[in-house]
C-alpha cells in the first residue's frame, strides 16, 4: 500500500511537471511573438528564441525541485520514509544530477553553438541574401570561436586538479595519471562545473546590469502607471501645430524669390524631421487609444498597483537579506582564499528566518523559493526590456513590442540563460542551509541511548559531522555545482555587493522619474514609417 501511494504521488508529480512544461512553452511562444518584428521574423530564429527561453525557465525550476526531493525523502522526526532506502535515495539523487547534466549541457550547447550560429547566419543574411551556402560557411566560421572557448573551459575544468598532491617524489606520469583518475571519478562533474561557473560569472555581470535595475524599475512602473493616451495626444497635437507654424515662418522668407540661408535650410530639415516623428506619434497614440488592450489595462489598474507593492516588498526582502548575508561573510568568513565560505550563520537575515517558519506548513517554503526565483527571472526580462542590449557604452539593440529584430531576441535569450545560472548562487547566498538540506531533520543519539534529539542540519552544528557519517542528511545536487572552485565563490561575493549598489541606484532613479509615456520606446528617430503597420497589427 505504501509503495502504491508512493507510485501514485510519483505519477501525480510527473503530471504536474508536464502541465508546468506546457505552460512554460505557451508563455515563451506568447512572449517571443509579442516582441518580435513582424517584418523581420524568421522561423529558425523564432524557434531558437522560444527554445532558449524555455530552457532558461525550466533551469530556474531545478533549484526548488532539488530542494523538495531531498526534503521529501525524510519525515519530520528525522527518519527516512519507508520507501526511501539507500538505493531509492541514490536513484533520486542520480536522476536530479542527470537532470542538471542535461539542462546545463543544453545551456552550453545554446550559448556556444546554436545561438551564435543562428545570430551570425542572420547577420550575414542581411548583407548577402542570395547565397545561402556562403551564409552558413561564414556563420560556422564565427561560431567555431565560441566552440573553441567552450572546449578550453571543459579541458581546464576536467584536468586541473583541485587538490595538488604533496608528494615530492611523484613523477610526471603519476601526475598525469592522477588527472585522468580525478576526471574519471567525478564523471565529468568538475569539467561541467567549471564551464558552468565561468558562464555564471558572466551571468553575474548581466544580473548586476539588468536584474538589479529591473527589480527597482518594474515595481515602481506598475505603481506609477503610464500617462493618459488622450492627454499625450492633446500635447502632441499642440506640438505639431507649433512646429508647422515655425516652418511657415521660415519658408515665408523665400516668397519673394530669395533663397534661404544655410542656417534656415538646416533648421527646416530639423523641423521637418521632428514633424515626421510627431505625426508618427499621433498615429501610434490614436491606435493605442482605440485599442482593446489599453481599455483592459485601465480596467486592471488597481491590480497592477497591488502587484507593484508586492514586488517592491519582495525586492526589499531580497536586498536586505543579501546585504546581511554578505555582511556576515565579511565579518565571519574564512577569507578570500576560501571564497568567503562561512561556517554557520552569525547574522540572520529575514529570508533565513522566514523559511524555517514556512517549513512547518507544506508547501509554503517551496512557494516562497519558487516565487523568488521566478521574480528574479521576470525582473531580468523587465530590465533588459527597459534598458535594451548594450556592449559597454554602445547600444546594440532595443527590445520593443512588435518591432524587435531576430538578433535582439537571440541576445535576450542568451542573457537570460546566463542570468538563470547565477540565480542558484544568489539564492544560496541568502539561505545556504536551506539550499543545501531543505527541510530535513536528523536524529542524534544523546547520553548513551537514553533518548534521541531531532535537529535541523546546520553548518555550525557540531553534530553535523556525525550526520554525514551516518548518511542521515542528503545534500542537494545544486550545492555540488556551486562550490567546486573557491575563486568563483570570491567573485560572486564581490558581485553581490555590486548588485546591491546598482539596485539602490536604480531605486533612486526610478523614484525620481515621472510616469512613463504610454508609447515609451515605440517611436524613435531611426524607425521607418513602415513600422507603424507592425504596431497596428499588434494592437488590433
UniProtKB/TrEMBL annotation:
Q: Which family does it belong to?
A: Belongs to the LIMR family. LMBRD1 subfamily.
Task: Name the chain's protein.
Answer: Lysosomal cobalamin transport escort protein LMBD1
Asked if the keyword Magnesium belongs to this entry, the reply reads: no
**Which GO MF terms does the UniProt record name?**
cobalamin binding
Taxonomically, the superkingdom here is: Eukaryota
- Name its GO BP terms in alphabetical order: protein localization to lysosome
Classify the protein's membrane topology as the record does. Answer: Multi-pass membrane protein
* Cell membrane listed as a keyword: no
Q: What is its main location?
A: membrane
Q: Which UniProt keywords apply?
A: Cobalamin, Cobalt, Coiled coil, Lysosome, Membrane, Transmembrane, Transmembrane helix, Transport
Protein species of origin: Lophotis ruficrista
- Where can this protein be found? Lysosome membrane
Coiled-coil residue spans: 261-288
- Mind telling me which InterPro entries this protein's record contains? LMBD1_LysCbl_Transport, LMBR1-like_membr_prot
Q: One cellular component GO annotation, for this chain's record? A: lysosomal membrane
Name the gene.
Lmbrd1
